[in-house]
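Data availability (excerpt). The following record was deposited with the supplementary files.
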Amino acid sequence: MSCWMPGCPALSMCRGLAALPITCLERAKDLKTRLGILLHKPELGHKTGSSSKLQLGSRRRDSSREVLEWRESFDQLLKSKSGVNAFHTFLKTEFSEENLDFWLACEDFKKTRSKTKLASKANRIFEEFVQSEAPREVNIDHETREITRKNLSGATSACFNEAQAKTRTLMEKDSYPRFLKSASYQDMTKQATGRGTSKRSHT
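Predicted structure:
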């Protein structure tokens, strides 16, 4: 119902709103929008926190699965950075970490592209690990040692292949089985399987 009487309060209110500057109305709308954003922020924060927890849980499951995969094969262990670190720590207790260090040095050596660097790296690896009475001499036979020495005259990325393969076989047949039976690895597998059991019991 419209109001035509001169003193009508509704007519005065309409005139008052019409007299307000447009900027005031825009500011009011802007304020309403900001209040709406602030009210929704806690909800957004909650969602972000949940996402972080899911990612952390996923990483834990991945690491647990990785630990259990180390016992599947020696290759699985060597593919894992944390597996190599754990194996290296174990080898230190047996004073035989030079075998793994030599294997890793050979892997790095194969990635070298510069011929100059290839030759200098080859000599350094040979002097540290392969030659007789080297500071960190690996356990390889005399024939393999001599073949490797001859390979140095024309160093290629393959000059340590035979010595590396012999060292790898030695670790796989000797040190690796003892690592799997070690107290340190047994503790890691218990923690890994414990996480899996705990996860299943809550689902």
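Summary of structural features: The CA atoms of residues 71 and 83 lie 10 Å apart.
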